[in-house]
Amino acid sequence: MTGADLALPPQDERTLPAAVLDGLDRLPLDQALAAVQTLVEQHGHVIVVYSRATPPAVAQRLHTIRALLESDRIALFRPDLPPLGVAVLARQLRQLASCDLGPGVLASAGRLLTHYLHAGALLGSVARLDRVPVVGLTSHARSWVPGSQFAVLAHPQPTLVKAGPDVTLPGPEFGTWLLVGRGQLPSDWVTGTLAPAWKVQGLRETEAPAESAAWWGTGKLVEFCAYLPDLSVLYQLVASVRRGVCHWCGIDVIGDRCVFCSATPPPPSELNARPVRPNRALTTG
Q: By three-state DSSP, how is residue 180 classified?
């Protein structure tokens, strides 16, 4: 994780702790490089999960470090989710890290599990929100009316409604828990209207991540994310997907792209003629 507030408390006793690469862009390059290299040497592979609201300098530093290490053991995963959803997804991967899943399957599982998250926010204004395509000029104009509040679902299906006691958002069709990220708005609508409408099986509260204000365009918000909490369910979802072998770095993956080396399957004519490339050892200098 690139911030301590994205490392949520464990969901269960098997949830592994997160390694936080906080202030990576403020460290001298050699120190930042050494910190990531140490993680790779300790764990074999590293999956860095970070938000699209992460400062560009941090994202650039991550790519620089990965390039300098010339390592296929570092996966940079930046899902198209709001910050609280990113934090929830990272915790699910930490849960799965305790299971018998290879690093390639675990890293690929992030894209799969994204489909089972419902992430959004209650906002006091959408005037500066440009990450959700349903937000248009009419909504922007109405957001200047004093007291207006908007409920926005960013994922999986972008939706915008004017929040009210009888108005809700389309929710999951399966049992979930709801995590509420407190911001500068009261959370009554989320806990009193949205949660019952979504028939959540449990509700937890935390502070909204620091990056949430930048992602949503306002600090007047309450962020929320519905998710699958049980490790057994998460494992069953991942284990049910057909696995393949990356033709470039040789690790097991699910899906059509390796998260570690970014390779996609070659055309069938090339696949038979091209040998599988084994993992190369990390250069330690």
A: strand
The two tokens of residue 206 are: 């935390």
Query: For residue 265, which of 285, 249, 284, 281 has the smallest C-alpha distance?
Result: 249
| Structure tokens that stand for 229 in this block | 């909490």
Task: Map tokens 């696949």 to a residue.
Answer: 271
Residue type present at position 233: V
Within this chain, do residues 99 and 160 fall inside the same structural domain, yes or no?
no
Which pLDDT tens digits describe the chain residue by residue (285 residues)?
888 889 999 988 889 998 998 888 898 999 999 999 999 998 888 999 999 999 999 999 999 998 998 778 899 999 999 999 999 999 999 999 999 898 999 999 999 999 999 999 999 988 888 888 876 655 665 666 667 799 999 999 999 998 988 899 999 999 999 999 999 999 999 999 999 999 999 999 999 999 999 999 999 999 999 999 999 999 999 999 888 888 777 888 888 778 887 777 665 554 444 433 433 332 222
Q: How many CB atoms lie within 10 A of CB 139?
A: 20
Pair (175, 238) in one structural domain: no
Query: Are 198 and 248 in the same domain?
Result: no
**One domain for residues 79 and 141:** no
Q: What is the extent of the structural domain holding 146?
A: 118-230
Please tell me the distance from the alpha carbon of residue 33 to that of residue 25, in angstroms, as a whole number. 11
Q: What is the CATH number of the domain that holds 138?
A: 3.30.1180
Q: Please report which helix (H) or strand (E) contains residue 145, including its range.
A: none
Assess contact for 104 and 258: CB atoms under 8 A.
yes
**Strand-pair category, 46-49 with 74-77:** parallel
Backbone phi and psi for residue 10, each to the nearest 5 degrees, phi listed first: -55, 145
Report yes or no on 189 lying in a domain: yes
Q: Is residue 210 part of a domain?
A: yes
User: What is the number of domains present in the chain?
Assistant: 2
Amino acid, res. 192 = G
What pTM does this model have? 0.88
